[in-house]
Amino acid sequence: MNKELKILGIVAAFTLILYWGVEPFAHSQMHKHVEGNNLVYDGKADIEEASKDKKEAKKAFWADVKKISALKGDVKAGEATYAMCAGCHMEGAANMGGVTPPSLDHAGAIYDKNFLIALIKNPAMATNVDHKYKDTSTHPMGSISSMVSAPQDIANVVAYLKAKKAGEVTPKEAYKEACGRCHANRYGKLTQLGEIPKTKSNIKTGKDIDAMKYEQKVATEQGALADYLGKLPPDLSIIFRARSEHFLHTFIENPQSQLAGTAMPRTGLSKEGMEKVMEYLEETGDPSKPARDALGPYVLIFFVLFTILAYLWKQSQWRDLH
Amino acid sequence: MAHFDENAKPFGHKWLNERLAIDTLQRVLSAEYWIPKNINFLWAMGMVLAATFGILLISGIFLLMYYNPSTNLAFDSVNYTIMTEVGYGWLWRHIHGVGASLVFLIIYIHMFTGIYYGSYKRGRELIWISGMLLFVLFSAEAFSGYMLPWGQMSYWAGMVITNLFSGGSLHADGLVEWIRGDYVPAQAFLSRFFMLHVLLLPLVIIGAIVFHFGTLRLPHVNNQDGEDFDFEEAAELYKNGEKAKSKVIPFSPVFLSKDIFVMGVYFIFFFYLVFYHFEFAMDPVNFDPANGLKTPTHIYPEWYFLWSYEVLRPFSTNIGLIAFATAQVIFFTLPFMDRSPNVAPAHRRGLFKFWFWAMLIDMLVLTFMGKLPPQGIWSTVGLIAAITFFVLWIALPIITKLEKKL
C-alpha cells in the first residue's frame, strides 16, 4: 500500500511538471505580457507608445481631457447640444466613410467619461488610431470639431449622456453598440447591420429572396468596412475561447498595446461596459458553462461512490490472497 | 458434427454451451487467465487504456452524428451545432477532447512502466512491438482527428506535417500533393482525414488491440520483480484453494476488481477535467477558423507530439527529418537494443537505472522546448536535449551489455 502511494506520488509529480511546462510556463513565454490600465483612460499608454514627433501633441491632448473632465457639466445645456450628435447617431443610420455611427442609447453606461470627452475633442486621438490619418479631422467623425469644440460644451454633452443615456443595458445591447458595427457574431445571429431578420423562402422555388437581399446589404456594409479598415474585422462568435480573458481586456482597452498599428479603434468601455460585453462574448463563445456547472458535481459524486464500492469489492476479492 | 441435445432450452446455458462453448470461453478468457499477484496499480493501465478507448469510441459516435466534414461547415458544426444546438453535445465534445489527451498520458505511463520493469524482454518482445504499433496508430488517429474542427491549428498543423513528406532535399512535392489531394490543405484533404479518423484507423486500432492482447497470452504479464516462475504450478495451487501461497490470481474477478477500482480513481480525475479544466486539451488557436492567408504566430502540435517535434526542430532540414524519422521508430527496437539478460525493475539494474531516468527527463525537456518559440536559450536547450536523446540510444546497448547478471 505504501509502495503504491509512493509510485502514485512519482507519477503525479511528473504529470504535474509536464502540465506546468506545456501550459502555464509555455504560454507565459509565448505571449508578450501587457499590463492593463484598469479601464482608466488617461492616455498613459498612448503617450508611451507614441513616436517622438507625436509625444508632445498626445501629452497636451490628454492634459486637456483632464481639464475638461474637471468642469461641471450642465445636463440641460448638454441635451440641446446633443441634438447635433443625434443627426448621425440615430436608428437606421447610414454608413459614413466606411462605418455606421453607433447608437448612443446606453453610451453613458457602457463608455467611460474621460473617453467620451476625448472622443468628442478628437475622435482619432481618443481611439488611438491617429496614425491612420494625415489629418485627424478626416476621421469619419472628424467633423465633430466644427460642431462641438468648446470645453464647456463637451462637458455638458458628456454630462447629458452620463445622466440620460445610462439606463439598464443588456449584454447583447452593450455588444451591439460597442462592437457590433464592425464585428459580426454569427452564433449570436448578428451581422454588422444588427439582428438577422426572420425571412421565409418561397415554397415552390426553395429560394428566400428576402434573405438574399439582406445578405447583399450585409455584403455591401462589409465591403465598406473592409475598405476603410484594411480588412474585414473578425467575427467574434467564439473569440472568448480563442483568446485569454486578460488578452481581451487589455486589447479592448487599448488595441495598439497588443497589436501595434492595428486599424481597430479603442472603444473606451467603462467597467460596466466591459463586464457586459464580456458577458455576451462568453454567452456566444462558451454557452455550455451553466450546464457544465449544473451537471459536474453529480457526475463527480457518481464516480466517487463508484470508486468507494469498487474499493470494497477489491478488498473482498483480495482478502484471502495474502 | 457435435452433439446437440434436442431438449436443451433455447438460449439456456446448455443450449448456448453446445453452440458457443461459453464455459470454455469464460474459463480461457477470464476465470483461468492467470495474472501475477505481485503487481501494483501501474498494471491496471492497460485496462484504463481500453476503457479510455471505449469512451473515445462512444463519444466519437455521438459527435459523428452532427459533425459536417466540409471546409465551409466543419468549424461551425463543431463549435456551434454540437456545442449549442445538440443536447449534451458539449459534454460529448469535451469528453472526446479530454479523452484524446489523457489517452496519451496513460499510454506514456504504460510505456515507461514497461521500460522500468523490463517487460519487453525474454519472450515479451512482441508485446512491446505491438504496443508501439498501437502508439503509432493512436498518433495517426490523434493527428487526423485534430484536422476535423478545421480551425487555424488544424489547418497549419496539417500544412506543416504533410510538408515533412517532401523529404527535405528530396523535394518529393508530388508525394505531398498526393497526400493532400490538392496543393494546399482543402476539401479533399479534410475528407480523407475524416475517413481515416472515423473509419480506417479505428478499425486498424481495434485489430491491433486484439493482437496486443494476443501477444500477452503465452509470455504472461510481467510482475514487480521480473520474477520468472511456473504459471501452471502457481495456477494449480490457486485452484486447490491455496490462494495465499499461489503467485497468481485469475483475471476475473480478482485482477479485474483492482482494475475497476483504479479506473474509478481515474474517472474521477477524467471527469474533473471534463467539467472544470478542459482548456488544456483544446488549444485556443484552434478556435479561430482555418485561414490559409494568415499564419498563426506560433505553430505547435498537441503536448504528446512535442518531444518528437523538438527532435526535428533544432537541426537543419535534412538532418532534422532523419532525426525525426528515427525518433518515430527507435522505441520499436528497445527489446533488441537492451542487451542485458536481466528482467528486473530498473533500480536493480546498475547503469540502466540512470538511463531510465535520464531518458524520462530528457523527453520531458524536449516536450517543454517543443512548445516554446525556438529562440535564444530555448533553441540551445532544445538542441542539447535532442542530441542527448540519440546519445542515450547509442549508449543503451553498451551499458546493458556491461550489466552484471543478477
Give a short overview:
Chain A has 322 residues and is mostly helical. In chain A, 58% of the residues lie in helices and 1% in strands. Chain A has helices spanning 2-30, 44-49, 52-70, 75-86, 107-110, 113-121, 123-126, 151-164, 171-178, 209-229, 239-242, 245-253, 255-258, 271-285, 289-318, and strands at residues 190-191, 194-195.
Features:
heterodimer; A: 322 residues; mainly alpha; two-stranded antiparallel ribbon; 15 helices; 58% helix; B: 406 residues; two-stranded antiparallel sheet
Strand order, main sheet of chain B: write it out. 1-2
Q: What topology, given as strand order, has the largest sheet of chain A?
A: 1-2
Instruction: Give me the oligomer status.
Output: heterodimer
Q: What's the number of extended β-strand segments of chain B? A: 2
Inertia-based shape of chain A: globular
Q: Helix/strand/pairing class of chain B, anyone? A: mainly alpha
Strand percent estimate of chain A? under 5%
Helix and strand string of chain B, N-terminal first? HHEHHHHHHHHEHHHHHH
Number of beta strands of chain A: 2
- First-residue to last-residue Cα separation of chain B: 54 Å
**Distinct helical segment count of chain A:** 15
The greatest interface here is: A-B, 51 and 52 residues
Largest sheet entry of chain A? 2 strands, antiparallel
Radius of gyration of chain B: 24 Å
**Largest beta sheet of chain B, briefly?**
2 strands, antiparallel
Helical content class of chain B: 55-70%
What do the pLDDT scores of chain B average to?
Answer: 96
What is the percentage of strand-forming residues of chain B? Answer: under 5%
What separation lies between the terminal Cα atoms of chain A?
Answer: 13 Å
**Regions of chain A with pLDDT < 50 over 5+ consecutive residues?**
none
Helix tally of chain B equals 16
